[in-house]
Amino acid sequence: MWKNVGVIGLGFMFLFTAFQNMAALQSSLNPSAGIGVYTLAIIYATIILSCFFLPTFFIKTLKAKRALVVCQAMYTLYIAAQFYPKWGTLIPSSILLGLAAAPMWSAKCTYLSQMGTYVAKVKGTSPEVLINRFFGIFFCMFQTWGIWGNIVTATVLAPKDDWTEPNAAELAKCGANFKVAQESDDGGDDDEEGVPKHQVYMLAGIYLVFAIIGPTIIFFLLDPLSKYGEDERKEQKGKSGLQLLFATFSHFAKNKYQMLIMPLTIWSGLEQGWFGASFTAAYITCPIGVHNIGYIIIVYASTDAIFSFLFGWILKRIGRIPVFTMAAIFNMAVMIILLKWTPTVEHKGFLYLFAVLWGMGDAVWQTQINAFYGVIFPGQEEPAFSNYRLWESLGFLASYLIGNNVQLSVFMYILVVWLAVSFVGYVIIEFLEYQRTGHFSIYFCNGGKTVSVEQNE
After folding, report:
1. Is the pTM value of this prediction over 0.85?
2. Distance separating alpha carbons of residues 53 and 102, to the nearest angstrom
3. What pairs with residue 449 in β-bridges?
4. Rounded Cα distance, 256 and 452, in Å
5. N or C: which end of the chain has fewer CB within 10 A?
6. Each residue's pLDDT tens digit, 132-187
7. Pairwise CA distance, residues 104 & 93, whole Å
8. Neighbour-count burial of 195, counting CB atoms closer than 10 A to its CB (0-12 exposed, 13-18 middle, 19+ buried)
9. Which residues of 160-179 are buried (b: 16+ CB within 10 A; e: fewer)?
10. Which long-range contacts (CB under 8 A, 24 or more apart) does 52-55 make?
11. Angular region, 16: left φ>0, alpha ψ -120 to 50, beta rest
């Protein structure tokens, strides 16, 4: 049981050390005609389309384990395309990656949720607690991609020695006043020559090895989900291909919980896209130099990984509602502060603090929204988690499109409002669960015992 959680976590860690870090460098490695950024947009646009029908089809046809292996192997094509980054190689590989992403993540969520539900039933324990632990361990391992990847990137790509601190006029265009179009108009894209080819090949070679290791580990070490009742799940019984195609779409249309959790799922994509693209450009590269990105991202990724594990333990003791509330407060506080503050070299230490807070918030969204889906949609894993990938991917896509076309302050105000709306939707679900079960997911310690808030009869 625990071995399988570790194998999946390790496989995803290797794969996303390659993909996430290569994706983060696209605007620098492949700046010609914006091809690098276009590949990211195509990936998430394709993910949105694939979420409607491919997850259930892949998992039904291949089963969870084989779906993981095949889909991860499709990711390696995108990394390999970096050796010859042309429209004819990057665009097709981006489309294939986008088609593979939704089934891969749905297969992972299905595997962990089904295994947790099956084992909890055998042991007579709560599936929610076990599923939370599984997702916590998985994301603790997964989120370390930012550590290993940034170590690789910082080692291969030496920082510029001729960087000079921006003057007051240049700083005024950073932070909340930052706009991507403004940087291009002012000659901000002055690195047209790109990264030297030998460094690109070295990065692509290292990351391709990482990407291949991921599915190889899963293929040889992961137990088939049939060991944990895969064939007995009700989704596997009596559904035609057309019904499986329709399942993902109908799940959203007919399920009020899915409608209510949709805004928070989109938020998960928005906040990741904002931090990975807008925050790094406006609050790191612009005021204090691109050579600082790796160090700050390492702090962010380390925090994310540590708290992805700890929040499973914390949630067991204080409940889900306080954990979600804390993440929302952290995110809201960081955005409100950053709307009024522009960093300088002298005060760049605050950026590490913001990276820690954002990493703690992301740890909650990545682990607990996944786990929450497993709890509120039992027996509906494939359509539920394909909806998760659909709405999260829409958040990523919206983040790239909005962030590249408006001033950052406008984008951040949109984020503040969206987070508030998303949290209201989550609270409504908790209230409906309170009416159904008679207790809130809030726990207090009473004489060394954990007790829940119960409904008064």
Report:
1. no
2. 9
3. 446
4. 25
5. C
6. 788 888 988 887 888 898 888 778 876 656 667 888 888 888 999 988 655 544 44
7. 16
8. middle
9. eeeeeebeeeebebbbbebb
10. 52/245, 52/248, 52/249, 52/386, 52/390, 53/244, 53/245, 53/248, 53/249, 54/99, 54/102, 54/103, 54/386, 55/102, 55/103, 55/106, 55/107, 55/248, 55/382, 55/383, 55/385, 55/386, 55/389
11. alpha
Give the H or E element holding residue 446.
Answer: strand 439-446
Structure tokens at 326: 């804390």
User: Would you mind telling me the total number of residues written for the chain in this entry?
Assistant: 457
- Give the pLDDT confidence score for residue 259 in this predicted structure: 92
Residue 277's pLDDT is 79
Cα(39)–Cα(35) distance, rounded to whole angstroms? 6
Residue 322 backbone dihedrals phi, psi, to 5 degrees: -60, -35
Interhelix angle for 127-142 vs 2-24, to 10°? 40
pLDDT of residue 128: 77
Both structure tokens of 386: 């394909």
Q: For 264-312, how does the pLDDT look when each residue is reduced to its tens digit (9 = 90+)?
A: 999 999 999 899 878 988 898 788 877 787 788 889 988 988 888 788 7
Which pLDDT tens digit goes with each residue over 178-195?
886 555 444 444 444 446
Amino acid at 51: C
Listed in sequence order, the residues at least 6 apart from 122 whose beta carbon sits closer than 8 Å to its beta carbon are none
Structure tokens at 3: 């071995």
The b-or-e profile of 305-319 (16+ CB within 10 A means b, else e) is: bbbbbebbebbbebb
In angstroms, the CA 116 to CA 122 distance is 10
Reported as a single tens digit per residue, the pLDDT across 49-61 is 887 778 878 888 8
Instruction: Say which residue the tokens 């909650």 belong to.
Output: 364
18: tokens are 């390659």
Dist CA 334 CA 340 (whole Å): 10
Task: Kindly state the tokens that stand for 211.
Answer: 């990407």
The partner residues of 299 in beta bridges, in order of sequence, read: none
- 174 in Cβ contact with 166 (< 8 Å): yes
Q: Which of 118, 14, 120, 121 is nearest to 68 (CA)?
A: 14
